[in-house]
Amino acid sequence: MKRIYQLILFAGILIAMLSFTSADSQSFSMNFNIPANDTSPPVLNLENYTHSIYTPFSEVIGATDATGISCFTLNDTSVFNIDCSGTMINVTTLESLTTYWLNVTVNDTLGYESSGIFYVQVRTPTGTTTVATPMCRYKKLIYYNPNLAWMKEVNCI
Q1: CB neighbour burial string for 28-48, b if at least 16 within 10 angstroms, e if fewer
Q2: What is the dihedral of CA 41, 47, 48, 53, to 10 degrees?
Q3: What's the rounded mean pLDDT across residues 123-148?
Q4: What are the residues facing 96 on neighbouring strands?
Q5: Residue 19 and residue 4 in contact, taking contact as beta carbons nearer than 8 Å
Q6: What pTM does this model have?
């Protein structure tokens, strides 16, 4: 007699598939669902990020859960956005040297949630300098990277 057992955990439900083949080659199969007994929220794997000014931001926020991850959300989507797979991108140009504090929430397939706070610090690229022109003509300053990776003109004070 040949026996095949298969268990799959999908969206909070344990799917059991059993197949039997008898000695006289008759096949029998049975499928049934067992709800998962999971009452714990997802576990977030957060870290802080340091990112170069004027460059696109894209990072994946990680989370794990026995029943699977459903989706992610951010508390502020004016500068960053996140999709249900956890990929976070900037939706506006990162043109200010600042730190963005963000609260991310993730929910699992059973509706349990977990939240965490992290930051994205926007700064000049490593190994470059910020230089102001010695004379502020036309009430403008130019910040530039000597390697010409980025350049920005702003009004003088």
Answers
A1: eeeeeeeebebeebbebebee
A2: -110
A3: 51
A4: none
A5: yes
A6: 0.60
Q: Which of 115-138 are b and which e, b meaning 16 or more Cβ less than 10 Å from the residue's Cβ?
A: eeebebebebeeebeeeeeeeeee
Phi then psi for residue 139, to 5 deg, are 55, 45
Amino acid 44 reads: L
Q: State how far the Cα of 108 lies from the Cα of 142, in Å rounded to an integer.
A: 48
CA distance 44 to 38: 17
Structure tokens that stand for 81 in this block: 């956005």
Q: Count Cβ atoms below 10 Å from residue 94 Cβ, excluding itself.
A: 20
Distance from CA of residue 109 to its chain's centroid?
A: 17
- Range with the poorest average pLDDT among 12-16, 19-23, 99-103: 12-16
Domain 43-123 has CATH 1.10.10.60: no
Domain boundaries, the chain: 2-35, 43-123, 127-157
- What pLDDT shows up at residue 138? 42
**Widest CA span in the chain:** 96
pLDDT score at 5: 60
CA torsion, points 74, 78, 83, 86, in degrees to nearest 10? -50
